[in-house]
Amino acid sequence: MKHLKASQVAVSNYPYFKYSLEYTLDSLERMGGSHMEFYACYPHLHVDDAGISQVKAVKKQLRDHHLTPICFTPEQCLYPVNIASRDVTARKRSLEIYVKSMEFASEMDIQLCQFLSGFGCLDEKDEDIWKRAVESVSYLGRIAEGYGLTIALETSPKEYTATVTAKDIVRLIEDVKSPAVKGMIDTATLGFADETMEGAIADLGPYLRHVHVGDGKPNGHFALGEGELDLPHMMDELDKAGYDHYLSLEILNNLYTRNPEYAMKKSFDWLVSYIENI
After folding, report:
1. For 197-225, how does the pLDDT look when each residue is reduced to its tens digit (9 = 90+)?
2. Strands, E, within 162-204: which ranges?
3. Which domains does the chain have, with CATH numbers?
4. b/e for 216-235, b at 16 or more Cβ within 10 A?
5. Which of 7, 72, 135, 167 has the greatest count of CB atoms below 10 A from its CB?
6. Is there a contact between 43 and 277 (Cβ–Cβ < 8 Å)?
7. Separation CA 60–CA 19 (nearest Å)
8. What are phi and psi for residue 97, nearest 5 degrees?
């Protein structure tokens, strides 16, 4: 590797959602993790229920386990969070969750939040959904600028977000016009839109700020090496592009519910080894 470094690999608490935070952090420290993406979900830290006092306690727990959080990602797929909802009340509540997430990220000295741009009903006009997404992300971008944070928007199928492709992310960023709003790539969701890693890198260009790494079959976030993705090729393309932000392990599949350490350690070891030895 000419550009990618093992220090860019970030572990995460994604597969540990049925275990306590104490168990999770012990596990991540034990496998040698030093940077992590913090997935804000119950029982680790539920954004709806938590306050600053709990956030301060989590921050100390991370520090005590020698883990530096590099991205704050609230649960936004399983929980009813939708900033492009046609329902005004649901949209307002969803925006408040994201604003609270930015407040928590700032308190934890995290400079990046990963959000979805919201979605509509499948029988709605795409332009109506898009308009609400732009309005909401514009609002969040202004707040992120005040906090000195960056928002990374992710692609996903239409059922989850208005940004289905990397080109959609670029269009939204340019409609929003906030320097705080950037884009990201998820290796496990590229296939949903028939995208390639090299294509997504080229489309996002200077807007690429974050990468999620997981394997797929072709869907699902499997442990690295347990899916069908050509991960070596994907890492080679990121290296070729000079990508210098974090590679965050998003391993989240019911297969690993009772053995999350196996899935995270296998993925961490695979990615670190590939970067160091190729």
Report:
1. 999 999 999 999 999 999 997 668 999 99
2. 181-186
3. 6-277 (3.20.20.150)
4. beeebbbbbebbebebeebb
5. 72
6. no
7. 19
8. -65, -40
What does the block give as tokens for 242? 């000079």
Between CA 171 and CA 35 the distance in angstroms is 31
Cα first-last separation, the chain: 6
The torsion angles phi and psi of 11, rounded to 5 degrees, stand at -75, 180
Of 145-154, 157-166, 193-202, 219-228, the range with the lowest mean pLDDT is 219-228
Asked if 27 and 264 touch (Cβ cutoff 8 Å), the reply is yes
Q: What residues contact residue 277 under an 8 Å CB cut-off, 6+ apart?
A: none
Q: Which two tokens stand for residue 119?
A: 């979605």
CA 51, 184, 67 angle in degrees (round to 5)?
50
Burial class from Cβ neighbours inside 10 Å (0-12, 13-18, 19+) for residue 212 reads buried
Token pair, residue 192, equals: 């949903």
Residue 116 to residue 46: CA distance in whole angstroms: 17
192, 219 Cβ separation under 8 angstroms:
yes
Q: Which two tokens stand for residue 72?
A: 């704050």
pLDDT of residue 142: 98
Sign, CA torsion 94/95/98/103: negative
Distance, CA of 22 to CA of 167 (rounded, Å) = 40
pLDDT of residue 160 exceeding 80: yes
Assigned token pair, 22: 């104490």
Beta carbons within 8 Å of 138's beta carbon, 6+ residues apart: 176, 177, 178
